[in-house]
Design brief:
By secondary structure, the protein is an all-alpha fold. It is 77% helix and 0% strand. The chain has one domain.
Length: 115
């Protein structure tokens, strides 16, 4: 079961990275007011999956990696603005980080049940 969760987490990170950098015109089906919820729930799921799939490294290490990942994706959106018309916003970054913490907390709580 653990290997399935780990593979799903890897695939999710790859797909998430690609989706976060897609041009806004491709993602136009999502209403602008839902953007915050989208960021939050995306990173809740990411934090949850990473917490369930971690083995040897400490929780602090993986939370740090996820926070850095959320910062990197937002900064990359800002740098790729001329190409993908996405923007760095502090709101999105805060929602990403809050989502990471909530997802990890939920994963930590359910870890003994699922694994």
């Amino acid at each position: 079961m653990l290997q399935i969760i780990q593979w799903f987490t890897i695939i999710y990170v790859i797909v998430l990275t690609l989706l976060l950098e897609l041009p806004s015109s491709v993602r136009s089906t999502i209403p602008p007011e839902a953007d915050g919820y989208e960021h939050f729930m995306t990173f809740v799921l990411l934090g949850f999956l990473v917490e369930l799939s971690r083995e040897k490294r400490s929780l602090r290490f993986w939370v740090s990696i996820l926070v850095l990942y959320s910062v990197a994706t937002e900064v990359l959106q800002g740098l790729l603005n001329p190409i993908c018309h996405r923007f760095f916003t502090w709101d999105d970054l805060c929602q990403n980080i809050l989502g990471v913490f909530l997802g990890v907390a939920i994963g930590y709580y359910f870890r003994p049940v699922i694994r």
